[in-house]
Structures are given as structure tokens and as C-alpha cells.
């Protein structure tokens, strides 16, 4: 026998090869297609914004943990990296870097570490960062640079409105959907990502690809994204069916704004979503309803960030009331 | 579609290294150490003294109550000591030490008797013999078998289930036994059906043992009352409640027993021991043990006398390899880690697993990321992450409300947790305290 002591511990004595770190890096991999699309559309700006968000998130986590909380530094676990990427993905491409840094500070410092760090935060950190910026700097946060011709140059304020912004404005000015839709990008453009919007929400196709990767790798399950998108489609479909001149079609709603990014990457955040399948469905229905209500009747054109944050607050309640069915809690079969 | 239980479960690598290795008989050791508490329930009472000569199969410790069991001398020899030794539980237990008489032929005789099919005993006599001959559940739980066969008049019972699942990775003791003693096990099943007065029996076997399924199917053709069912490979398929649910679609009620849904479950190893007891008058003195591990020279299956020190078994397979960090009695999911190899084989020892450095240590526990994986793999529909937190914070009353006591300790939650949290450790702790609190209340 070797000199090292024998380990005596309780069972189980084997462990699956899943680690939280691997889960986190799978999410990063799943975000790559969407990042490539944003590089193609926004050029170097996408790179700068993403790098700024990632670096500042990691740096804030390091500094706060090391000097303020005086705890173990956990920047290697991949969670701050994801927060950085997702924050950048939720910002318009041309936003000043100092705003990105501020958003990162709120995301990491306020939304994550002040709650106790990874696993203890109630709200999705990246979304808290984004909503903080949206409320503090509404002008800069809604300047949407359009696709540039030369991918290497830094875009100036060549801006256009997003699909949802156009619809909201049009409806407010009393235009009909036929008039509005003349200004909208085609569905195909929205699918591929040749449209205005936040960095990462451009291409529905790239995001769905990443989402499928996460489902195949069993990082997330289908419950949240599918329920959320179906809820949105059904609700917007009902309004569109009643009055197609005032309401956009479900397809436009699903392909525009942050619907796909939110459904696959933001609402599915492990920490801030329910633990049971039943709970996930309830959670996703709630997000779907709130998103549609804000989009159709709120003052903001897009509401999925708010919807997710609001439902985040309900997660502890959902976990309490939607428990898995206990084995043997009702007798199923009778003895013959 | 193969049958299985509906919710939860995991797929650890099977690693059945010894599934093709014929069971070899290990010669009687020079000294055997026979603990008096090898079963669940009251320990047996020692009825021999130092320097007593004992014959093979003689009762050396008598059952201490209804839920208890007789212990028999596994060898003929002389009692040298009544000692306290550490057994597989890790605690010091009373134990009878017998020096094997090297001249006594009964210690070395071949005991492969010819098959005896005819059942001559009455049901009551069968149950009595099973009780007298010290037979306990050999699947690992070591629950005295006669207790499960003493069924009150008013209880309805319509099916006997034979557990041949062996869902623990690495272990092949039941698998080999099913292949090598198929006919005897079938007779054993008929004995049990006779004793229980039921007309239906199902043998449940996981689909990774296709040869055993085939063997039983071929041989059980003449006996239509016995069915053979292939089950999906999924841990913990061999859990009693999971098995009943998979085979009969009946759910054993919370805190209930299979009998509550008209079923009695016995392990194949137990059935073979019952066959030996009823047909050949052999008390339970030996069992099949798988000695396995990736680094072992020649992992094997053995017939081992109860009381044989585990180091004898390990010697037989080439000794403990360099870099070994853990020795487990049982399988990797539910087995107990041992402190030394001086521990003897008892009635519940289904395997010895030798684990090397790379797999022995646990990962550093990290924060719970609420991924819900423990919830989705729990076959009992519990929330392990919640139960751990409640136990950690001494909120045992709340933990009891959250059904902590229904945990079967299969370890699926700890197995999947991506943050390496010691979920089952805390749940066990919570269960123990809850049990204490509940017994104080009564």
C-alpha cells in the first residue's frame, strides 16, 4: 500500500464529470455564434464592447472579493465571464466604454456580490446591469448603430431604430401595421441578424444554435425557452388575429428584440430560475405574459429584461409552491 | 420499451470488470472473525465460549428477537477469542474468533450438490427454517428474510419480485450467481412462492445482463407462473420501491413497505441461500463477493466464508495496487469506505472495490448554483439541495416536513452535483437527528 493515508468518506464514492465550471464554459461556447454575428454586423465595436464588459466584470469581481469581502477569489469559475458577455450582448454597439464599466460594476457588485456571490443572487446580474444603464442613460441606451459596410472601422452614431422601436413609435403615431411594416426589416434579415438592436440579440438563428447546444449538453432543459416563446407567440398571436393593423405578427415578436436571447440565455440562468420542471414552466409563462404586456402596452418597446427580473423575484415562491411529486405520496395501483 | 421507474436516476459508468469471471471458491481461511451483528435489527447473543470446539454450521450466536438472525459457524474449529473488532460499519462490534481446524474435512469439502427440485416442506416449516438458518437479505440491506415471509392473515399479497437488478457499478456477484445457479434459483423462487402462497413471481434483471435474462427465460418456460423482465439500465433500478414501480406500476406509499401494495421483494442471492437452506440443509455460511477495481491485477468473483478477512480476498486478486486511496465494502454508489483490510466479510458484503488516487478524492465543494440537477435525479421526488440546507441549519422539523425520512440514500444527488456539494452526507445527518427527535416524542 502507498504511504498516503486511506480515505474514509461516506458514499457515493464516484462522481459524474459535470462541474459548475464546465457548465459555465459550455454557456460561453454557446454564445460564440451570436458573437461572431455581432462581429460581422458591428465590426470592431462589438469586440471593444464585449472586451470592456468582460474585463471590467472580472476585474470588479476580483477587486471586491479580494479587498472588500476578503474571501476566496472565484473569477475562474466562469460566471463573471458569462455576466460580462451577456451584459455586452444586451447593450447597443456604440455605447461609451465608461458606461459599460459602470454597468459591470452594478452587475457584479450590486446584483451578484452584495447578495453573497455565485448562487445567492436573486436577480440575473447582467440584466440588472443593463436595466440600470437603460434607466440611467436612456438616450445612449437606445441609439442603435446599424450595420456598417466596413467591418473594421469604428461606427459613429449612424443609428436607426430597432424593429420593436419602429413598431412602438408607429403605433403611437397612429400608423397601421401595413405602413409600419414597410420600414421593418424582412423576417429573413431578422433571423440572420441584419437589423438594428443590441450586440448579441441580432441573429435569432445564431442564438437558437447556441441554445440547442446548451440543451444537447444538458446545461439547460427545453422547459424555459420553449414555454416562454410559445407563451409569447400565443399572446401576440391572439392580438394580431383580433387586429392585424395594430399589432405585429407573432413571428416579428419572436424574431425581434431580445426574445430569443432572453429565452435561451437570460431566463435560463441556473441561479435565478426555478429548480423544478413545473416551476420552470410557470416561471416562463410569467415572463412571456409580462414581456408581451410591456411590448404592447408599456412605454418601453422591449420588455423582456424587466419581465425576467420581475419573475426572478418570484423564483423562491415558485420553488416553494411547485415541488416535485414525492414518490409514494398517493397510491397509484390497487392490489388485485 | 424496457421497463424502468419514471422519475430520476443516473447513469454512472458500469465498469462491470468481472462479469465473465466464474465464481471461484476461496479456501477456508486459517482464522475467521464472525461479528454477531451482521443484520439489521437486534444483535445475536453469543452462545459459545472460549476454547469451545464448534462444528461447521453450528449456531454460535442465537437470534436476539423477532427482527434478528442466528449466526452459524462458517468453519469447524476452536473458538479462540470473543473480541471487539471494527466491522464494515466502522464501529467496534462484538465478534467470535474461530481458528479453523485444518484437519477437519468438512472445512474443505465440495458443496456443489446435485439439483433438488422437489419441495417437501410446508410453508410454515420453510419460514421457520429460513429463520433458523440465519438467512438475511444478501442484496446489502441484510434485513432478516423470515420477517418478510411472516405475513399476517389480513394482508393481501399477489406477487413475489426477485431482485436481480444489481444496479451498482462494478458489482457482478448476483450476475454470476444468476448465470451459474439459474436452476437452483428457480427452485428457490418456487420455494418462496410456496411459502408465501402466491401464484406469480417476476425476476427483474437490468438489460446489461442479457445472458442472465436469456438463461432465466429459457429455463422458466415450463413454469408459466414465473416471469422474467428485462429492465432499463438506470441507477437505482435495484432500489426496492423503484423496482416495484418499474415492474408492476405500483407505488409503495411513503414510509410504507412493498407489502402495502401486495408485493414481497427478495434478492437473487437470498433466493439461492434459501434454496441451499431448504433443499440441502445448509445454513448461511458463505456468499459471493466481487473483488474489483480498475488497477487490480485480476479482479474476480469468489465464494467466501463469512468471517474471512478482506485482506485474504485482496491477496487473492494480486494485492492492493500502488496508489490505492480507498477501499470500499459494496459498490461505489452505496458502499462503505473501510479503514483497513482487517475487516471481515459479513452476510451483507456484496463486493470489495479498490479505488485509486484519481477517483478517490472528492471535489472541493462550491456554492450551490441552483441548477436543480439533484432535484431531477432524485428517484424519490425530494429536493436534496433544500434538505441539505435545512440539515445544515439544524431545521430538522422542517426537513421532516419536506420528507427527509423517505430518502433511500442512493447517492444520485451527490453523484451529479456540479458543485460537488456533500448533499447526501448532510441528508444522512438530518435523517439521524430527525429519527432521534421522533423517537423521543413517542
TrEMBL record, chain A:
Part of a membrane-bound complex that couples electron transfer with translocation of ions across the membrane. Pfam families: NQR2_RnfD_RnfE. The complex is composed of six subunits: RnfA, RnfB, RnfC, RnfD, RnfE and RnfG. The modification FMN phosphoryl threonine is found at residue 162. One of its GO terms (biological process) is electron transport chain. InterPro entries: NqrB/RnfD, RnfD_bac. Belongs to the NqrB/RnfD family. This is Ion-translocating oxidoreductase complex subunit D. It is an enzyme of class 7 (translocase). The keyword Membrane applies. It comes from the Bacteria. Its cofactor is FMN. It comes from Flagellimonas nanhaiensis.
UniProtKB/TrEMBL annotation, chain B:
It is an enzyme of class 7 (translocase). Keywords: 4Fe-4S, Cell membrane, Electron transport, Iron, Iron-sulfur, Membrane, Metal-binding, Repeat, Translocase, Transport. The complex is composed of six subunits: RnfA, RnfB, RnfC, RnfD, RnfE and RnfG. This is Ion-translocating oxidoreductase complex subunit C. The lineage of its organism: Bacteria, Pseudomonadati, Bacteroidota, Flavobacteriia, Flavobacteriales. GO terms for biological process: electron transport chain. The gene is rnfC. It comes from Flagellimonas nanhaiensis. It is a peripheral membrane protein. Residues 359-381, 398-427 form the 4Fe-4S ferredoxin-type domain. Its cofactor is [4Fe-4S] cluster. InterPro entries: 4Fe4S_Fe-S-bd, 4Fe4S_Fe_S_CS, Ion_transpt_RnfC/RsxC, Nuo51_FMN-bd, Nuo51_FMN-bd_sf, RnfC_N, Soluble_ligand-bd. Part of a membrane-bound complex that couples electron transfer with translocation of ions across the membrane. Its EC number is 7.-.-.-. One of its GO terms (cellular component) is plasma membrane.
Amino acid at each position: 500500500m502507498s504511504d498516503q493515508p486511506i480515505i474514509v468518506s461516506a458514499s457515493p464514492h464516484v462522481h459524474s464529470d459535470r462541474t459548475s465550471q464546465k457548465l459555465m464554459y459550455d454557456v460561453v461556447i454557446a454564445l460564440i455564434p451570436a458573437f461572431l454575428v455581432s462581429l460581422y454586423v458591428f465590426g470592431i465595436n462589438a469586440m471593444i464592447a464585449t472586451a470592456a464588459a468582460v474585463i471590467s466584470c472580472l476585474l470588479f469581481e476580483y477587486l471586491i472579493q479580494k479587498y472588500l469581502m476578503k474571501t476566496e477569489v472565484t473569477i475562474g469559475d466562469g460566471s463573471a465571464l458569462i455576466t460580462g458577455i451577456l451584459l455586452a450582448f444586451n447593450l447597443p454597439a456604440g455605447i461609451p466604454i465608461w458606461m459599460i464599466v459602470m454597468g459591470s460594476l452594478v452587475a457584479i457588485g450590486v446584483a451578484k456580490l452584495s447578495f453573497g456571490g455565485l448562487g445567492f443572487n436573486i436577480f440575473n446580474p447582467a440584466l440588472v446591469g443593463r436595466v440600470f444603464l437603460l434607466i440611467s442613460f436612456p438616450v445612449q441606451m437606445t441609439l442603435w448603430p446599424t450595420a456598417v459596410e466596413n467591418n473594421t472601422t469604428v461606427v459613429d452614431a449612424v443609428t436607426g431604430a430597432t424593429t420593436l422601436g419602429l413598431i412602438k413609435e408607429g403605433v403611437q403615431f397612429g400608423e397601421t401595421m401595413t405602413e409600419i411594416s414597410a420600414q421593418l426589416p424582412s423576417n429573413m434579415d431578422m433571423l440572420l441578424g441584419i437589423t438594428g438592436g443590441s450586440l448579441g440579440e441580432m441573429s435569432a438563428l445564431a442564438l437558437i444554435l447556441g441554445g440547442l447546444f446548451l440543451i444537447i449538453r444538458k446545461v439547460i432543459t427545453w422547459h424555459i425557452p420553449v414555454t416562454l416563446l410559445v407563451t409569447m407567440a400565443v399572446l401576440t398571436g391572439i392580438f394580431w388575429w383580433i387586429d392585424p393593423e395594430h399589432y405585429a405578427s407573432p413571428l416579428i415578436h419572436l424574431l425581434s428584440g431580445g426574445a430569443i436571447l432572453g429565452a435561451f440565455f437570460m431566463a435560463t440562468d441556473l441561479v435565478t430560475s426555478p429548480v423544478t420542471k413545473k416551476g420552470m414552466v410557470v416561471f416562463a409563462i410569467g415572463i412571456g405574459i409580462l414581456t408581451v404586456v410591456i411590448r404592447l402596452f408599456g412605454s418601453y418597446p422591449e420588455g423582456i429584461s424587466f419581465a425576467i427580473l420581475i419573475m426572478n423575484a418570484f423564483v423562491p415562491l415558485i420553488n416553494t409552491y411547485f415541488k416535485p411529486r414525492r414518490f409514494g405520496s398517493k397510491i397509484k395501483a390497487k392490489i388485485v | 420499451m424496457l421497463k424502468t421507474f419514471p422519475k430520476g436516476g443516473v447513469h454512472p459508468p458500469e465498469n462491470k470488470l468481472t462479469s465473465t469471471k466464474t465464481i471461484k471458491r476461496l479456501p477456508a481461511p486459517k482464522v475467521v472473525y464472525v461479528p454477531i451483528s451482521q443484520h439489521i435489527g437486534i444483535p445475536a447473543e453469543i452462545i459459545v465460549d472460549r476454547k469451545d470446539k464448534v462444528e461447521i454450521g453450528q449456531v454460535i450466536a442465537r437470534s436476539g428477537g423477532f427482527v434478528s438472525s442466528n449466526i452459524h459457524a462458517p468453519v469447524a474449529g476452536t473458538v479462540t477469542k470473543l473480541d471487539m473488532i471494527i466491522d464494515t460499519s466502522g464501529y467496534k462490534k462484538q465478534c467470535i474468533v474461530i481458528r479453523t481446524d485444518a484437519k477437519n474435512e468438512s472445512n474443505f469439502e465440495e458443496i456443489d450438490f446435485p439439483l433438488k427440485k422437489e419441495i417437501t416442506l410446508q410453508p410454515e416449516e420453510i419460514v421457520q427454517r429460513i429463520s433458523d438458518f440465519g438467512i438475511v437479505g444478501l442484496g446489502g440491506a441484510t434485513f432478516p428474510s423470515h420477517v418478510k415471509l411472516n405475513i399476517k392473515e389480513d394482508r393481501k399479497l399477489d406477487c413475489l419480485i426477485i431482485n436481480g437488478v444489481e444496479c451498482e457499478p462494478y458489482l457482478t456477484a448476483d450476475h454470476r450467481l444468476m448465470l451459474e445457479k439459474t436452476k437452483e434459483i428457480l427452485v428457490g423462487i418456487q420455494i418462496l412462492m410456496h411459502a408465501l402462497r402466491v401464484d406469480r413471481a417476476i425476476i427483474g434483471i437490468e438489460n446489461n445482463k442479457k445472458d442472465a435474462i436469456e438463461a432465466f427465460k429459457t429455463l422458466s418456460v415450463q413454469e408459466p407462473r414465473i416471469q422474467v423482465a428485462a429492465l432499463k439500465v438506470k441507477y437505482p433500478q435495484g432500489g426496492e420501491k423503484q423496482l416495484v414501480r418499474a415492474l408492476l406500476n405500483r407505488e409503495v406509499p411513503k414510509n410504507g413497505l412493498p407489502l402495502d401494495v401486495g408485493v414481497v421483494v427478495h434478492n437473487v442471492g437470498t433466493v439461492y441461500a434459501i434454496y441451499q437452506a431448504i433443499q440441502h440443509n445448509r445454513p448461511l455460511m458463505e456468499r459471493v463477493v466481487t473483488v474489483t477495481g480498475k488497477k487490480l491485477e485480476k479482479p474476480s468473483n469468489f465464494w467466501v466464508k463469512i468471517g474471512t478477512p478482506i485482506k485474504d480476498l485482496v491477496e487473492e486478486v494480486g494485492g492492493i495496487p500502488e496508489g490505492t486511496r480507498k477501499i470500499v465494502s459494496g459498490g461505489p454508489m452505496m458502499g462503505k469506505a473501510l479503514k483497513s483490510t482487517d475487516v471481515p466479510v459479513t452476510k451483507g458484503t456484496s463486493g470489495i472495490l479498490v479505488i485509486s488516487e484519481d477517483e478517490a478524492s472528492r471535489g472541493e465543494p462550491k456554492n450551490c448554483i441552483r441548477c436543480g440537477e439533484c432535484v431531477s435525479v432524485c428517484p424519490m421526488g425530494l429536493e436534496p439541495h433544500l434538505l441539505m440546507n435545512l440539515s445544515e441549519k439544524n431545521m430538522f422539523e422542517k426537513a421532516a416536513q419536506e420528507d427527509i425520512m423517505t430518502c433511500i440514500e442512493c447517492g444520485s444527488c451527490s453523484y451529479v452535483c456540479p458543485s460537488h456539494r456533500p448533499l447526501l452526507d448532510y441528508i444522512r445527518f438530518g435523517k439521524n437527528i430527525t429519527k432521534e427527535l421522533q423517537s423521543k416524542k413517542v
